[in-house]
From TrEMBL:
InterPro entries, per the entry: ALC1, Helicase_ATP-bd, Helicase_C-like, Macro_dom, Macro_dom-like, P-loop_NTPase, SNF2-like_sf, SNF2/RAD54-like_C
Transit peptide is among the record's keywords: no
SUPFAM superfamilies assigned to the protein according to its UniProt record, in alphabetical order: Macro domain-like (SSF52949), P-loop containing nucleoside triphosphate hydrolases (SSF52540)
Coiled-coil zones: 628-660
Gene Ontology biological process terms in this record: chromatin remodeling; DNA repair
Pfam families listed in its UniProt record: Helicase_C, SNF2-rel_dom
GO MF, any single term: hydrolase activity
Domain Macro: 696-871
The protein's name in its UniProt record: Chromodomain-helicase-DNA-binding protein 1-like
Keyword tags: ATP-binding, Chromosome, Coiled coil, DNA damage, DNA repair, Hydrolase, Nucleotide-binding, Nucleus
Record-level GO cellular component terms: chromosome; nucleus
Keyword Cell membrane (UniProt): no
Organism: Stegastes partitus (bicolor damselfish)
């Protein structure tokens, strides 16, 4: 490819040194960071590329500070060159917030605009850009594709693409879209510039320098450099081609002060249930093994199901025994989770903090159930978690004492800084080892001050072992290629992968794995495997040799087989299925056919050409046992109940202890922040017992003096009372985000305190369901005859997807109890809006019962307000004796209004409006039911109690 070299020499000028020093960057606007020498070299290299070519690739290893080097380049451009933007930065959603924070911290002189949110929010941002200037626009790949027409308006001085391996396919929509943007200089950031082959590398090169690396030359480029392993001159030529465009440094070269990272693999056995399903998955579709080319999809399905089986058999529907209750069966069913359980117990005692990665979100679900069962604190991040919740999860793990962070390898494996952890555990491995490297780098990066342990769990003699072994071989070749300047993986890696057919991979380890149907799970000595730790840190002892490695060496000596790998030490990791594995697979086939013929009959088997099926029930293999007597069965049942009760008691005690510790920490946090909770204290048990003694006879009574709720048309924010204190009640959710419209806006007009107190309580985690915030709201308007207070009942929940639940009557019940105590203590009346108004399916009758039960029936003056609406005047209808009127409550309320003065009102309202009150024409009326069934009397009585609603 001498023509490419010629183009480079004519198009790319020789780099002239552009001196960039820390003091100059600080003068131009860099704040809050002292760049390391290699980072200053990187900024200088970026500045040279800026002056000579169209783009470049900063390929430093993960954790070396590519972000801060890029921000320094933007500061250099705005300060030294006077080019203040606009600059466009694309990143994954999970790291967008990190970019914003670092830009605001390191380059406060640059105005940053975050382009994110739903369609309406983005439209609002687009309108703001017409009047608002910015230097840097941050957004994600997905939004860039959705709103490409909007982003194409600008001539971007610099385009930065973080995690740029997203552009490794030059035919992808993102690659094509970004090439249409008007860009002065392109910067690609990736810790894995080479993942698979030369074609992907060429895609990155064609993006940053399309004038040299044209799309039509990709095939000739790949073919020219595909055999550089045997031609040193060709390798040197490729190095010359890449040198102007790619800069890569690794931690071992430049970050010698970074704490040591130790990587090891721990093997585990499988439970009897896992073996049973592993065998069943292999024999379910034996025809797929006959034709490799035509059955590739079916073989891949088998491979995925085998991986699920190795992770946990409960990943298959219908395997978990009923009833679906938490218990030790969750741990005992999987050899992987059994080992992980022991490992987490050891790590928790040692004060370590863990990043736990898995490929499967359903496996994360099982791990989350396990965390709840064991009572471990955790956060979770996967592809289903929204951006705001992602940032909160990362913040919580970094700032709080959270033990485990559950992450999916793809969603949580790029860009994030999680140096609060010192242990990384891969529950299962990615097919692409670069993805696992990216994930481990979340923890082992600049800012980490403790040694890091990276642990990988592998099931011995399964597809998991051989797939990982081949991935490591590929990774070693990649590292060798990068270090020596040889960037092609076509010759060895791909041919090695092609040399072993998928069907042979699936047969790996069958002979040993299925030689016994019993569980192969064993207890292990974790301290000898993982190594010692002291003061919540791993001990960095060069002389220490893990027990697992020693045991493995003993096995090698005894069996003369290829060794298993525990450390990355340049050994040969590849493994092929043995002849014994093939014989074991043949035996499986024979056994399955015999079993199939027994159950289905020879004639049916011949008629059906499916060969095999999963017709045999998959139960846990058990030995034949003598039948138990009734007394023995009863004794076993009692022992199981006692053991279950004991476990439940221990779990309850642990939960109480954790809640107490959590409460103490919260109190200490509040004290350090100077926060005083506005929440009402729970009603004590004695008062609750008294409350229970007031039975339903008082609640269902038709005596209006004891159950009188006064219904009013008007504004609840201006209580209909002249003398005495008043408590206004409003229901809110637990998010801490003040709403818009309706009563939220009306309360803001009345006082500044509601939003202030509610959002403060949200920040301080003081919005549990059933909590009641009570505070005065007389800062803007007040009454001479008493004080107005607002009670915010936390009766709704907002989930991570921002979906709002309905009102929980249990939370409302608890809140009303507290409000009763406060109203009784302050001799205050209570004023509520029509809760749940216009909410479809809302249980108003149950809500009204609660209000009557806790407030009106116990002597608290209670008012329920309907918002006044403009309606057509109609003649007042005659009093109806029908209890089954179908007219709406609002219409009925309007029709029943009269011009008479409400004699029962405590006094005139101070509001500018004069809200009317419902006429009490039913007051004092006695109703008798004659010759009616009890159920009918109850129904009619209910209508009378709630009339006219």
């Amino acid at each position: 490819m001498t023509d490419i070299l010629a183009k480079i020499k004519t198009s790319v000028a020789e780099k002239k040194k552009t001196p960039v020093v820390q003091s100059d960057l600080q003068k131009w606007g860099l704040k809050g960071i002292q760049l390391r020498p290699y980072q200053l070299d990187g900024v200088q290299w970026l500045a040279q590329c800026l002056n000579n070519q169209q783009g470049c690739i900063l390929g430093d290893e993960m954790g070396l500070g590519k972000t801060c080097q890029t921000i320094s380049l933007l500061v250099y451009m705005s300060g030294a060159l006077g080019k203040e933007g606009p600059f466009l930065v694309l990143s994954p959603l999970s790291v967008m917030e990190n970019w914003r924070k670092e830009l605001e911290c390191f380059a406060p002189s640059l105005t940053v605009l975050c382009y994110k949110g739903d369609k309406d929010r983005r439209a609002e941002i687009q309108r703001e850009t017409n009047t608002q200037d910015f230097n840097v626009l941050l957004t994600t790949y997905e939004l860039c594709l959705k709103d490409a027409s909007f982003l194409k308006r600008w001539r971007w001085k610099v385009l930065v693409v973080d995690e740029a391996h997203r552009l490794k396919n030059q035919n992808s929509l993102l690659h094509k879209t970004l090439t249409e943007f008007s860009v002065g200089f392109r910067v690609l950031l990736t810790g894995t510039p080479i993942q698979n082959n030369l074609q992907e590398l060429y895609s990155l090169l064609s993006f940053i320098q399309p004038s040299i690396f044209t799309a039509d030359d990709v095939d000739s480029f790949v073919s020219s450099y595909s055999k550089i392993q045997n031609q040193p001159a060709l390798a040197a030529e490729l190095q010359s081609v890449l040198e102007p465009f790619l800069l890569r440094r690794v931690k071992s070269e430049v970050a010698v002060d970074l704490p040591k990272k130790t990587e090891l693999v721990v093997y585990h056995g499988m439970s009897a249930l896992q073996k049973k399903y592993y065998k069943a998955v292999l024999t379910k579709d034996l025809e797929a093994f006959g034709n490799e080319q035509g059955s590739k999809t079916r073989l891949l399905n088998i491979l995925m199901n085998l991986r699920k089986c190795v992770d946990h058999p409960y990943l298959f529907d219908g395997v978990e025994p009923e009833p679906f209750e938490m218990g030790e069966h969750l741990v005992e069913a999987s050899g992987k989770l059994f080992l992980l359980d022991s490992m987490l117990t050891f790590l928790h005692k040692g004060g370590h903090r863990v990043l736990l990665f898995s490929q499967m979100t359903r496996m994360l679900d099982i791990l989350q159930d396990y965390m709840e069962y064991r009572g471990y604190s955790y956060e979770r991040l996967d592809g289903s978690v929204r951006g705001e919740e992602r940032n909160l999860a990362v913040k919580n793990f970094s700032s709080k004492d959270i033990f485990v962070f559950l992450l999916s390898t793809k969603a949580g494996g790029v860009g994030m800084n999680l140096t609060a952890a010192d242990t990384v555990i891969f529950v299962d491995s990615d097919f692409n080892p670069q993805n696992d490297l990216q994930a481990a780098a979340r923890c082992h990066r600049i800012g980490q001050n403790r040694p890091v342990k990276v642990i990988r769990l592998l099931a011995r003699d399964t597809v998991e072992e051989i797939m990982y072994s081949r991935a490591v071989s590929k990774l070693q070749l990649t590292n060798t290629v990068i270090e020596e300047g040889r960037f092609s993986l076509m010759d060895q890696a791909q041919s090695a992968a092609a040399g072993l057919q998928l069907s042979e991979i699936l047969k790996f380890g069958i002979d040993k794995l299925l030689s016994s149907e019993e569980s192969s799970i064993q207890d292990v000595k974790l301290e000898k495997i993982l190594g010692p730790s002291r003061d919540n840190e791993w001990v960095d002892d060069e002389q220490y040799t893990p027990l697992m490695e020693e045991e493995e060496e003993e096995e090698e000596d005894e069996s003369d087989v290829q060794n298993h790998m525990y450390f990355f030490e340049g050994k040969d990791y590849s493994k092929d299925p043995s002849s014994e594995d093939q014989k074991g697979f043949d035996r499986l086939l024979e056994e399955q056919l015999v079993e199939f013929q027994k159950t289905a009959g020879e004639g049916r088997a011949l008629r059906h050409k499916t060969g095999v099926s999963l017709s045999v029930p998959l139960g846990i293999p058990t030995r034949k046992r003598k039948p138990l007597t009734e007394a023995e069965l009863e004794l076993r049942r009692q022992r199981r109940e006692e053991a279950a009760a004991k476990r439940a008691k221990l779990q309850e005690d642990m939960k109480k202890k954790q809640q107490e510790q959590k409460y103490k920490k919260k109190m200490a946090w509040w004290e350090s922040c100077g926060y005083r909770s506005r929440c009402l204290q729970p009603v004590d048990s004695e008062e609750e017992e008294e409350e229970e003694q007031e039975d339903d006879s008082s609640i269902c009574s038709t005596d209006s003096d004891s159950t009188d709720i006064r219904y009013v048309l008007g504004d609840v924010t201006h209580p209909h009372t002249a003398q005495g204190d008043a408590i206004i009640v409003h229901c809110v959710d637990d998010s801490g985000r003040w709403g818009r419209g309706g009563l939220f806006t009306a309360l803001e007009v009345r006082s500044d305190e509601p939003r202030k107190q509610y959002e403060l309580a949200g920040k301080m985690k003081d919005l549990d369901l059933g909590n009641v915030l009570l505070f005065p709201i007389d800062d803007k308007q007040s009454r001479l005859g008493g004080q107005d207070q607002l009670a915010l009942i936390v009766a709704q929940q907002r989930d991570k997807a921002n979906n709002l639940s309905g009102i929980f009557l249990t939370a409302l019940d608890e809140g009303l109890k507290k409000i009763y105590a406060a109203a009784k203590r302050n001799k205050a009346s209570v004023h509520l809006p029509r809760i749940g108004h216009s909410t479809r399916g809302f249980n108003w009758y149950g809500t009204e019962r609660l209000i009557r039960k806790h407030l009106a029936s116990r002597g608290i003056a209670t008012f329920i307000y309907y918002h006044s609406r403009t309606v057509k005047k109609t003649a007042a209808p005659q009093t109806s004796t029908s209890a089954t009127s179908t007219s709406s409550p609002e219409a009925h309320l309007q029709n029943k209004l009269t011009d008479e003065t409400e004699a029962e009102s405590p006094g005139p309202s101070t509001s500018t409006q004069s809200p009317a009150q419902l006429p009490s024409f039913m007051k004092g009326v006695c109703v008798f039911f004659y010759n009616l069934a009890a159920s009918e009397r109850k129904r009619l009585a209910r209508y009378l109690v709630t009339y006219p609603f």
